[in-house]
């Protein structure tokens, strides 16, 4: 196999063309728009790489690198933790031979390491070519198949408990609004800040420390960057009870994929009225009506309350991993 042409950063038009031609459907987190949001929020530099072979195969690896550290001490990521699936997307077959070329090229980069979070559908290909020194970060992705329409999903995939939650929300008389302009972002951020304080009290963590950790993990510019760069593809759903907002969810749209990305709420009222399961169910129903094929609940950790909540909608669990691959800079992940 001949060596590929490598271009970095990956040209936006080529990257977008691969997304547009992906018949299996590309999730929003593998698009150039998501790269823009990551760079804007994380204040990173685009170091994505395009590989082109003579047989017509083109492969893009989304990558960002922090600006503050020298390359030899830096980590480049596809994507940073908390930003979902990156990995690689290709026009043409992704085989082990081509994946091996990519891994060897990443290992030759003058960085400490590369964090690669592949699409779970491609996990076996990447695992087969990773070096022994690669460190795995086990992940689980929950994806709901929408074939058969909403009536089929409701009857055959939802658990009875989840259907009861939706009926309870309907009886509560919740009003729902959907916006794709970012108008509800301040409300989402207010609920999120309240949640951080609630988690701190629950876990006995000092408020100052909890808020600092939350700002590092999810700075306000993160949510704002996603809203700004995705535009109408980012929809915020708000549930209100007697005129007072009680919950907000953030849904991301890309082709036949919809991703449930974030939620924030008034915990007590939202729990009584089942506002969040109601909003998620309405988003699933809309995705079916719009011809969607997949509704993704994103990466999660088995056994948590969040995972159990998502399981109620009947998604399939895909167990895979992200991988720290050593580079040619200072060795080791830490």
Summarize this entry quickly:
By secondary structure, the protein is α+β, with helices and mostly antiparallel strands. It is built from twelve helices and 15 strands. The strands form two sheets. It has an eleven-stranded mixed sheet, with helices on both faces. The protein has a four-stranded antiparallel sheet with strand order 1-3-4-7, covered by helices on one side.
Describe the 3D structure.
The chain folds into two domains: about 140 residues, 3-Layer(aba) Sandwich (Aminopeptidase); about 150 residues, Gcn5-related N-acetyltransferase (GNAT) (Aminopeptidase), CATH 3.40.630. The protein contains twelve helices and 15 strands. Strand 12 and strand 13 form a beta hairpin. The two termini are about 35 Å apart. The protein is an alpha+beta fold and about 325 residues long. The model has no long low-confidence stretch (mean pLDDT about 95). The protein has an eleven-stranded mixed sheet, with helices on both faces. A four-stranded antiparallel sheet has the order 1-3-4-7, with helices on one face.
User: What ranges have pLDDT less than 50 throughout 5 or more consecutive residues?
Assistant: none
For CATH, the homologous superfamily of the largest domain is named as Gcn5-related N-acetyltransferase (GNAT)
Specify the structural class.
Answer: alpha+beta
The CATH class designation of the largest domain is Alpha Beta
Tell me the major beta sheet. 11 strands, mixed
Shape: globular
The number of domains: 2
Number of helices: 12
Q: Could you tell me how far the N terminus lies from the C terminus, measured between alpha carbons in angstroms? A: 35 Å
Tell me the fraction of residues in β-strands, as a range: 25-35%
SSE ordering: EHHEEEEEEHEHEHHEHHHEEEHHEHE
What's the CATH architecture of the largest domain? 3-Layer(aba) Sandwich
The residue fraction in helices comes out at 25-40%
In the sheet with the most strands, the strands line up as 2-5-6-8-15-9-14-13-12-11-10
What is the β-strand count?
15
User: Please, what is the average pLDDT?
Assistant: 93
Query: Which fold name fills CATH's third level, the topology of the largest domain?
Result: Aminopeptidase
Rg over CA atoms: 21 Å
């Amino acid at each position: 196999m001949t060596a590929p042409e490598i271009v970095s950063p990956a040209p936006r038009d080529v990257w977008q063309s691969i997304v547009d031609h992906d018949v299996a459907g590309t999730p929003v987190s593998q698009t150039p728009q998501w790269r823009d949001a990551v760079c804007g929020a994380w204040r990173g530099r685009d170091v994505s790489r395009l590989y082109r072979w003579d047989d017509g195969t083109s492969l893009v690896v989304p990558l960002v690198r922090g600006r503050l550290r020298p390359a030899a001490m830096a980590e480049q990521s596809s994507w940073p933790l908390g930003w979902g699936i990156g990995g690689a997307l290709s026009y043409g077959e992704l085989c082990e031979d081509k994946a091996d070329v990519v891994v060897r090229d990443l290992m030759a980069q003058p960085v400490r390491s590369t964090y690669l979070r592949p699409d779970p559908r491609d996990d076996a290909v990447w695992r087969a070519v990773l070096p022994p020194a690669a460190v795995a970060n086990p992940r689980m992705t929950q994806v709901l198949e929408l074939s058969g329409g909403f009536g089929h999903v409701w009857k055959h995939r939802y658990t009875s408990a989840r259907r009861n939650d939706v009926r309870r929300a309907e009886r509560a008389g919740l009003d729902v609004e959907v916006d794709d302009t970012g108008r509800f972002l301040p409300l989402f951020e207010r609920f999120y800040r309240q949640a951080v304080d609630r988690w701190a009290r629950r876990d006995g963590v000092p408020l100052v420390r909890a808020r600092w950790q939350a700002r590092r993990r999810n700075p306000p510019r993160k949510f704002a960057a996603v809203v700004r760069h995705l535009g109408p593809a980012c929809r915020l759903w708000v549930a209100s009870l007697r005129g007072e907002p009680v919950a907000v969810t953030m849904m991301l749209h890309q082709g036949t994929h919809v991703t449930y990305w974030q939620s924030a709420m008034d915990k007590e009222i939202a729990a009584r009225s089942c506002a969040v399961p109601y909003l998620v169910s309405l988003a699933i129903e809309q995705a079916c009506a719009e011809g969607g094929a997949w509704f993704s609940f994103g990466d999660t950790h088995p056994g948590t309350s969040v995972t159990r909540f998502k399981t109620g909608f009947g998604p399939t669990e895909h167990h895979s991993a992200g991988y720290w691959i050593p580079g040619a800079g200072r060795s080791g992940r830490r």
